[in-house]
Amino acid sequence: MPEIRKDPFSNRWVVFSPERLRRPLHFEAESEIVFNEEDNPFIEGHESYTPPEVYASRNGSAPNSPGWKVRVVPNRFPALRIEGELKKEAVGFYDMMTGVGAHEVVIETPEPGLELEDLDSEGIAEVLKAYRARFLDLKQDSRFYYLMVFKNVGAFAGASIPHAHSQIVALPFIPIAVKEQLDTARKYYAEKERCLFHDILNAEMKFQKRMVYENQRFGVYCPYASRFAFETCIMPKAQQADFYRLEDHDLLQLADVLKLVLSKYRSALKKPSYNLVLTTAPFRREHSGYWETIDQDFRWHLTIMPRLTGLAGFEMGTGCYINSVYPAHAAETLREAVV
Description:
With about 350 residues, this protein is an alpha+beta fold. The protein has helices spanning about 120-140, 175-190, 195-205, 250-270, 290-295, 315-320, 325-335, and strands at about 5, 15, 25-30, 30-35, 55-60, 70-75, 90, 95-100, 100-105, 145-155, 165-170, 210-215, 220, 230-235, 275-280, 300-305. The strands form three sheets. It has a ten-stranded antiparallel sheet with strand order 5-6-9-11-10-15-16-14-13-12, sandwiched between helices. It has a four-stranded antiparallel sheet with strand order 2-1-8-7, with no helix packed on it.
């Protein structure tokens, strides 16, 4: 059974999940992929290779059979387990809780040779609808406080299998990185009666030099203090704290943005490894200062972080990042990339 332990220095929770050591690793090196299609659990026809699906976009076919566009299944090697009671306790001086949560895999396409950006906008929107559906289901479980959606592409970004997929993890706590954003947003709103996310996006759209792309509902920019070279942030223009409240037409517009930006990465950076992270509001489980103005002060957003260089001692020891590319230059490169 996994455990979740709290670091008393940073107040960060750390998940200990020895079962993850059993994962098959299909990547040997960044430039070399060792992959046998017969062993691929994510292709159409191999539905029995995975646990039973918890969601699927299908063409009228039966569950756990061929004939799907997007499929969501429990991770065979979960960081956290959905079974069991959430218990919090002291272990001597330290704090610990049982490793209860959910860990799911979103299989984005039945085709092994396609990346997310190879799908058309409707296909990418089906992936986003899967995220939304799992939010709506998992938020019903009172043990969970936060839902993390992320996508690792390439061995350098932590991917263990090359078939296009993303992951969902439901956590029994709010991660400290999210708490920091909540605190900052709430204090900014209390002082200025304006949303920090709104002000940042408006400033970037006026300045333009760090903007990569925008459509009717979303803006894409390279953050002023980007941690990673060519890091981008996708932010809705309308105020919205919760990703799961997006309507179908919004998801289609977001799919348009994702397809273009990921295609530009492929063109400009020669198909880099990257991490994509969705940051959204936590579930409102108990009274907290966060919830009083969260719908006005917080805005969900997507961050894409190319992994062109590794993290080293400086980053690990200080929490600061060294970025060799100014965001204005990164944005210009991405804007000019031909897709």
